[in-house]
Amino acid sequence: MVYPYYPSTRVESLRPLSYLLDVVRPPTGRGSTLEVHSTPFGCEVFLNAVTRGSICGVVGKKPSLLLTDAATALGSEGGPVFTEGPTKELIGTVVCAVSWCRGEWVGLTLVAPLISVLAAKLRVAPQPPRPLHKHPLHDVLGEIDACCVLVRCGHAWGAGVYLGGGYVVTCAHVVTQYQTHKLSVYCRGVSETAIVRYKTPDKKAYDLALLFTNPERLSHMKPAVLSTVPAEKGESVLAAGFPYYNEFDLTNLIPTITSGHVNTVSPSMIQTSCCVQSGFSGGPIFRLTSPQHRVEVLGIIAINVTSDGGACFPYVNMAVPVTVFSDALTNYILDKDETKLAMIENNKEMIQSQWRLMPYRSKI
After folding, report:
1. How many domains does the chain have?
2. Do 118 and 147 share a domain, yes or no?
3. DSSP assignments along 305-364, one per residue
């Protein structure tokens, strides 16, 4: 029997993918904005819902995965992801809207860059990520990376803000076990042991700690600028931390950056809508100034709202305003008078109850 010969069968089967490869564009990179179109919960009432956010992190060199703070829900998987703006170029698809990692729900959405997926399937070289163009974050990513450090103490980890002279401010609960476990800071390929100069009592406001390490090892870092103007309700802010990292490869360690705004503010607390996970504790809340496009620290991230059942709400979080501690830390760094650090502690019951979120208990 003679079988018919179809030389183009395989090519034809892949041609739709090659057509799609011509349509999609490589993502722009960390800090750029995007748009997710999806149908949450698979319900026609929410058909083609649109959410916007920024690319918080990029995994892999090709890249292989994007993290975004564009809020999505179950049923959003497979939804197209576009660049924001009039052109709306297709760059990816949602692969995971809701996930569980290290004992908590992940607030970030995972997006697969279609250019990398299709290039791997068709065995062609993918186009490299495009540089950012005319986006405010482009000018400040370097400043953010230069003042944020990863802090690790035993099994606990969080973020910290470099103040200069070898000093780093972070959260007290990140370094609770510093007396029995090694305390280290990591930044831009450098790892160095640190010591605790000051720490507020456990489970007390304001949950802050001052660390010291060899300043010569941090000479490549840039001290953060602490704001002298209090946060304003409604203003746009950024959060930086280290929720996900490869502990076996810290050479290219950079913080994950999420965007949001100030929901409420008081002299003793800033509450924002930035997506915050474990690993953000001790990290900064930034104000993006204009027209210089620079960043200054408004507060230090301390906690997320958690219900009695243990559910964590990554888009509801609290930070300690820099106005609470900036003078005390600055004066101590100048004259090393430890008595001035005690000014950070506040034993007023109203402040303590506020940071215990009393009587604000979730009913969910």
Report:
1. 2
2. no
3. EE-TT--EEEEEEEEEEHHHHHHHHHHHHHH--GGGGGGG----HHHHHHHTT-S-----
How far apart CA 292 and CA 312 sit, in angstroms, is: 36
Q: 264-277: buried (b, 16+ CB within 10 Å) or exposed (e) per residue? A: ebeebbbbbbbbbb
Residues 178 and 45 in one domain: no
Residues 230 and 256 in one domain: yes
Lowest mean pLDDT, pick from 33-47, 155-169, 260-274: 33-47
Which token pair is 314? 């990554």
Instruction: List, for residues 218-252, the tens digit of each pLDDT value.
Output: 999 999 999 999 999 999 999 999 988 777 777 78
DSSP string across 167-181: EEEE-GGGGTTTTTS
Least confident of 69-73, 264-268, 352-356: 352-356
List C-alpha distances in Å: 54 to 259, 274, 331.
Answer: 7, 11, 37
User: How far is CA 275 from each of CA 155, 195, 247, 261, rounded to the nearest angstrom?
Assistant: 23, 30, 22, 10
Residue % of the chain over a pLDDT of 90? 49
Q: Tell me if 36 is assigned to some domain.
A: yes
- C-alpha distance from residue 227 to each of 141, 176, 294, 325 (Å): 18, 27, 11, 11
* Any domain includes 267: yes
Token pair for residue 135? 């986006």
Cα 110 to Cα 177: distance, rounded to the nearest angstrom: 33
Q: Cα 66–70–75 angle (5° rounding)?
A: 90
Closest by Cα among 263, 246, 245 to 255? 245
